[in-house]
Structure to design on (469 residues):
C-alpha cells in the first residue's frame, strides 16, 4: 500500500477500511447488474468527524469519492467507475438514531440508519415516518435523501425532501454544514439543505438529518380493485380523494402482466380475485380514529364505482395478514421482472390527468419498435409516476434487447416530453440517464447546476461522472 493510502486508512482505522478484492466486490456492483466498477478501497467511517477527516484528506490529494448507503439505487449512482482510482465512502457505520422528540414530532438520525428501522422506531413512539418503498429493509436514509426517494406514500406526504427539517452535511473540503434545527419555520435566508437533497452525493456527504414525524394512523383500509383500463383508474382516484377527504395514502396502478410475473416467480403469493382482469389498483386509505367510519366509506365508494363500471371486482383486506399479502404483490414487482430477462426501465412522470393517454401511446410506441416486447407498466399513478418498464421478447437474448436501450428510451421519453413530464420521477440520474439529461432539462437549470457543482466541489472529487453530463 502506498503512503497516501496508508494515511487514508489511518484516518478510519482498521475497522473502517477494506481493500481486499473479495471485500470490495459487493460495493462495486449495483442492484440491476448494469454497472460494475472497480474501487481503490472502501472507507467506512464511524462518525461525522471521521467523514470530515476523510473528505479533507481526499480533497487535498484529489482522490475521487463515491458515497454509498444501502446500494439499492437503480441508476448506478453509488458504484465507482472502472478506473480503480475511486474511493467508496460507505455510510453504513453511521447507524445511530440520535434522538426522538415526540412533542416536536421529529427524529434525529444518522445517514446509515436503515429506512425500516426508522419506520419501526417511529411506530414504537406511536408516530409515523411515511417514506416507504420496496427496498426499505436495506436502503439507508442518507441514500434516500440523496436520491430524494419517492415510494408509495408521496401523494399524501410528499417526496423524501418534504420530510426533512434539518441536515448535517460534510462538504468536499471537510467543513461540516449544520442545519440540524428541527424547526418548521425558519426564514433566515436560503434553504441550503434542499441543495443536497436529491444531489446524489455530488455536492456533499449527508451524515445526519432531522426527520418529520406524523401521527400514527388508527384506521387503515387497503383494497385491490380490478379495472377495465387506466382511465377508469384515474377517475376512481379522483373519487377516492374527494370522498375520503384526502385520506388516500397510496394509489398504485398495475397492468395484469406484473401480477402474472409475481405469481410465477415469487413464492407465497396468490391472486386476490377469482378472475383475471387487464388492470388493477392497490389503494390504501388511512385516518385517525373515526369510529370505524373509514371502512364504511371505502365500501360505499367501491360499490358506486362498481355500479358505474369503473371497477370490475374488488377485494378489501380484512386483516393485517391480508393487507400484507396485497402489498407483497406490489412490492415484489421489481424482483419478479428479473427472471423474465433483460428489462429496459423508464421511471417517468406526467400530470396525473395524462397517465392513461401516456400509457396508451407509450405501449403503442414500444410495440411498434420491438414487436413482442412486453410492456410492464406499474407504479405510483396517484402522483403521476409510472414505472414504464419493458421486458425483452420471450425469444430474444438479453444483450440483443439491451442494445436497443438508448433508442427505446429516446422513443418513450419523447412522448413523456410532450406532456412536459420527467425522465426520472424518483430514481435519480446517476450514470444511467446522465447523458440524456441535457435533452430534457432546461439549459439555464443545467448551467446553474454546474455553477453549484463548481462552488461546492471545485476539485470535482464528489461522485465525479454522476448526474452531471
Ligand atoms: P445508494 O444506492 O447507496 O446510493 C444512492 C445515491 O445516493 C448514490 O448516488 C450515492 O452516491 C448517493 N448517496 C448515498 N448515501 C449518501 C450520503 N449519505 N450522502 C451523499 N450521497 C449519498 N426508489 C424510489 O424512489 N421509490 C421506490 O419506490 C423505489 N423502489 C425500489 C424498489 C426496489 C426493490 C429497489 C431495489 C430499489 C427501489 N428504489 C426506489 C431505488 C432505491 O431504493 C432508492 O433510490 C433509495 O433511496 C436508495 O438508497 P440507498 O441507501 O440504497 O442508496
Ligand atoms: C418500485 O416502485 O417498485 C420501483 O421504484 C420500481 C422499479 O424497480 O422500477
Ligand atoms: Zn417506484
Amino acid at each position: 500500500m502506498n503512503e497516501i493510502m496508508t494515511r487514508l486508512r489511518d484516518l478510519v482505522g482498521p475497522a473502517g477500511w477494506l481493500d481486499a478484492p473479495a471485500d470490495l466486490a459487493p460495493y462495486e456492483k449495483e442492484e440491476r447488474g448494469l454497472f460494475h466498477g472497480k474501487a481503490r478501497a472502501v472507507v467506512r467511517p464511524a462518525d461525522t468527524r471521521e467523514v470530515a477527516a476523510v473528505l479533507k484528506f481526499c480533497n487535498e490529494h484529489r482522490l475521487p469519492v463515491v458515497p454509498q448507503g444501502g446500494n439499492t439505487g437503480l441508476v448506478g449512482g453509488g458504484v465507482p467507475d472502472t478506473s480503480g482510482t475511486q474511493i467508496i465512502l460507505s455510510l453504513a457505520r453511521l447507524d445511530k438514531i440520535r434522538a426522538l422528540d415526540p412533542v416536536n414530532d421529529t427524529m434525529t438520525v444518522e445517514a446509515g440508519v436503515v429506512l425500516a428501522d426508522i419506520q419501526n422506531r417511529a411506530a414504537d413512539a406511536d408516530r409515523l415516518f411515511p417514506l416507504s418503498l420496496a427496498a426499505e429493509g436495506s436502503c439507508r436514509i442518507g441514500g434516500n435523501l440523496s436520491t430524494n426517494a419517492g415510494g408509495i406514500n408521496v401523494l399524501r406526504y410528499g417526496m423524501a425532501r418534504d420530510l426533512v427539517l434539518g441536515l448535517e452535511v460534510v462538504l468536499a473540503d471537510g467543513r461540516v454544514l449544520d442545519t440540524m434545527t428541527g424547526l418548521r419555520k425558519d426564514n433566515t435566508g436560503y434553504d441550503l439543505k434542499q441543495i443536497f437533497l436529491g444531489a446524489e452525493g455530488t455536492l456533499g456527504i449527508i451524515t445526519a438529518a432531522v426527520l418529520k414525524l406524523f401521527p400514527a394512523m388508527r384506521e387503515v383500509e387497503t383494497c385491490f380493485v380490478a379495472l377495465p383500463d387506466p382511465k377508469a383508474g384515474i377517475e376512481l382516484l379522483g373519487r377516492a380523494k374527494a370522498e375520503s377527504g384526502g385520506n388516500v395514502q397510496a394509489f398504485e396502478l398495475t397492468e395484469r402482466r406484473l401480477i402474472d410475473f409475481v405469481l410465477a416467480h415469487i413464492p407465497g403469493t396468490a391472486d386476490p380475485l377469482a378472475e383475471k382482469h387487464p388492470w388493477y389498483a392497490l389503494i390504501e386509505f388511512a385516518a385517525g380514529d373515526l369510529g370505524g367510519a373509514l371502512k364504511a366509506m371505502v365500501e360505499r365508494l367501491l360499490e358506486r364505482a362498481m355500479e358505474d363500471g369503473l371497477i370490475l371486482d374488488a377485494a378489501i383486506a380484512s386483516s393485517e395478514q391480508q393487507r400484507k399479502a396485497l402489498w407483497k404483490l406490489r412490492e415484489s414487482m421489481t424482483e419478479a421482472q428479473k427472471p423474465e430477462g433483460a428489462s429496459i426501465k423508464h421511471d417517468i412522470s406526467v400530470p396525473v390527468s395524462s397517465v392513461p393517454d401516456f400509457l396508451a401511446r407509450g405501449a403503442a410506441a414500444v410495440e411498434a419498435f420491438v414487436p413482442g416486447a412486453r410492456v410492464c407498466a406499474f407504479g405510483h399513478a396517484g402522483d403521476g409516476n409510472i414505472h414504464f418498464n419493458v421486458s425483452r421478447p420471450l425469444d430474444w437474448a438479453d444483450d440483443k434487447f439491451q442494445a436497443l436501450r438508448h433508442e427505446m428510451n429516446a422513443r418513450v421519453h419523447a412522448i413523456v416530453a410532450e406532456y412536459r413530464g420527467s425522465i426520472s420521477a424518483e430514481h435519480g440520474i446517476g450514470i444511467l440517464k446522465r447523458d440524456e439529461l441535457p435533452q430534457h432539462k432546461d439549459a439555464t437549470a443545467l448551467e446553474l447546476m454546474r455553477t453549484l457543482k463548481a462552488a461546492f466541489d471545485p476539485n470535482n472529487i464528489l461522485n465525479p461522472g454522476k448526474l452531471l453530463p
Q: What stands out?
A: The longest strand covers residues 219-227. The two ends are 33 Å apart (CA to CA).
